[in-house]
Amino acid sequence: MRIQNYSRKRQAIYDLMLSTSEHPSAEWIYTMLKPDYPDLSLGTVYRNLKLLEENGAIRSVAVIEGSEHYDAIMTPHPHFICRLCGKIYDLPAKFLLPEQANIKRIRGVGKIEITSLIYYGCCEECTKNDTDNV
Amino acid sequence: MRIQNYSRKRQAIYDLMLSTSEHPSAEWIYTMLKPDYPDLSLGTVYRNLKLLEENGAIRSVAVIEGSEHYDAIMTPHPHFICRLCGKIYDLPAKFLLPEQANIKRIRGVGKIEITSLIYYGCCEECTKNDTDNV
DNA sequence: TAACAAATTAATAATTATTATCTTTATTGT
DNA sequence: ACAATAAAGATAATAATTATTAATTTGTTA
């Protein structure tokens, strides 16, 4: 029997997730790994991302322009997502106030497993570019 | 020239959005309105939801199981989403702490337009059902 | 090491939500 | 009512994701 041991490609996907701050989509990971793993299949990336998410190794941050984006940093922290360029920024955990970070249950509603705090707006990069084009 | 006046069907879609606490998807709205508007087309629902969102009349809450869900209540408030049944609950605005509700900009990152606070977990309804099935 | 069993993968087809197109219909201002 | 414009229906096209299936890899055991 095979114990829970990562296959080569699964490990490569997870390692890439850990090494980047890009909050990648399946497509992005596929493109990055393809040169090193020429026989990599896109389906494998999708399959493993879902699997890693189920195992609690990564989590979904948001769906941007129809594509799911993931994060391998499991310490709770908020995100900022630029509505122009779609880039996802990590924010320091201090933006998650203690009161919110500690809520475990909402009476009459349910038990909380994951808290997602996302700020949507326009990032400074895009603001700058907008100004340039006037 | 046509002023910003809602067409019959657009009005019906918006009215339905206002009258429900379901945080509907396009499909749900289509199913609900179809009996009263037999010639309604699903494309029309998608088109108008996007339009209403651009006009700031409604906003997207989350993508659940691949489908976008909307909310017509524009007062900032958090949501609870059950990961089992997918139901979206409105939470009172007090769960949005003042400090967070008032952040307008994050230095070095960008300007905030929308804050999204979502708690994911298991709702009491589903917890109860799970227990029943043991 | 050889043979077997189970997990994983590539390749591809199938799904599904959403968007685009294009022709027809409805609506509005004059 | 009439012309101009907006909106809608029907349907085709996209695009992301999932399912399928046969082949390959990997681990296990004799």
Describe the SSE topology.
Two copies of one chain form a homodimer.
Chain A: H1 8-19, H2 26-33, H3 42-54, E1 59-64, E2 67-71, E3 79-82, E4 88-90, H4 98-102, E5 105-106, E6 110-123, H5 124-132
Parallel strand pairs in A: 3-6
Antiparallel strand pairs in A: 1-2, 3-4, 5-6
The first copy, chain A, binds a DNA duplex (30 and 30 nucleotides) through helix 1 and helix 3.
Radius of gyration of chain A: 17 Å
Number of helices of chain A: 5
Uncertain regions spanning at least 5 consecutive residues of chain A: none
Q: How much strand of chain A? A: 25-35%
The arrangement of helices and strands of chain A along the chain is: HHHEEEEHEEH
Looking at the structure, what is the overall shape of chain A? flat
CATH architecture of the largest domain in chain A: Orthogonal Bundle
Which oligomeric form is depicted? homodimer
Kindly report the spatial arrangement of strands forming the biggest sheet of chain A.
4-3-6-5
Total strand count of chain A, please?
A: 6
Fraction of residues in H or I helices of chain A: 25-40%
Q: Give the total of domains of chain A.
A: 2
Instruction: Report how far the terminal alpha carbons of chain A are from each other.
Output: 64 Å
Level-1 CATH class name of the largest domain in chain A = Mainly Alpha
What value does the average pLDDT of chain A take? 91
**Any idea of the CATH topology of the largest domain in chain A?**
Arc Repressor Mutant, subunit A
